[in-house]
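Q: What changes when protoporphyrin IX containing FE is included in the input?
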Amino acid sequence: MALEPQAFLKTLENRIEFSAENKALLQANADWGKEIALEMAEHFYTYLGRDTEMNGILTATEGRAHRLRETFVEWFHEMFTGMDDWGKVYADRRWRIGLVHVQIGIGPQHVVPAMAAVVQAAGNRLKADGKDEALREALSRVCMIDLAFIEQAYVEVSSAAVLRETGWTAGLFRRLIATGASTLSI
Ligand code: HEM
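A: The predicted holo structure follows.
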C-alpha cells in the first residue's frame, strides 16, 4: 500500500494544527475519556442501529455488535492517550481501522455522519461535566484525524485495486478520474 500511516498522521496533524497543547490536554483528561467511553459507545450504536442499512451490517454476524462495543470503547479512550504519543502504534492502528471498514464495505456516506454523531455526543457530555472549550476543540481535531484515516483507506484501497487489475499507472488513473468528473453534469 502506498500510504505510509505515520507520515499521513504527521500531515494531518500539521493540516489541522493538532498541537502539543491539544495532546497534553487530551492526556490529562484520559481518565475522563475512559469513564465516558461506554456511554459514547451506546450513543454511537444507537445511532447506527436506527439506520436499516447500517443495522443490517451490525447484526450480519453473531457477536459483531458486542465486539464492536468493546472495540469502540478502546478506540475512544485511545484518542485521549494517543497510545504511543500519536506515534507509529497510533498511526498503524488508525490505518487498520480504516482497512477493516473498507473490507466490510462501509463507505464515506456511513462514516462521516457517524463521526459527527460521536463529536456531538462527546460535546454534550463535555458541557454537562463543565469541561473546558479547549478540550472540545482538541477532541474534535483528533476525531477528524481518525475520520481522515478511514476515508483515505477507502480511496487508497479502491485505487490500488483498479491499478492492480488494469495495469494502469497512477497518473493515467488520475487523468481518467478528472476526465470522468468533467463529463458529469453538475
Ligand atoms: C466514527 C466512525 C467509526 C469508528 C471510529 C469505528 C470504530 C471501529 C473500530 C475501532 C473497529 C475495530 C477494528 C478492528 O477490528 O481492528 C470497528 C470495526 C467495525 N465497524 Fe466501525 N467505526 C466507525 C464507523 C462505523 C460505521 C458507520 C459502521 C456501519 C455499520 C461500522 C461498523 C463496523 C463493523 C461491522 C466492524 C467490524 C466488526 C467485527 O466484525 O469485528 N463502523 N469500527
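Observations recorded in class: The longest helix spans residues 133-166.
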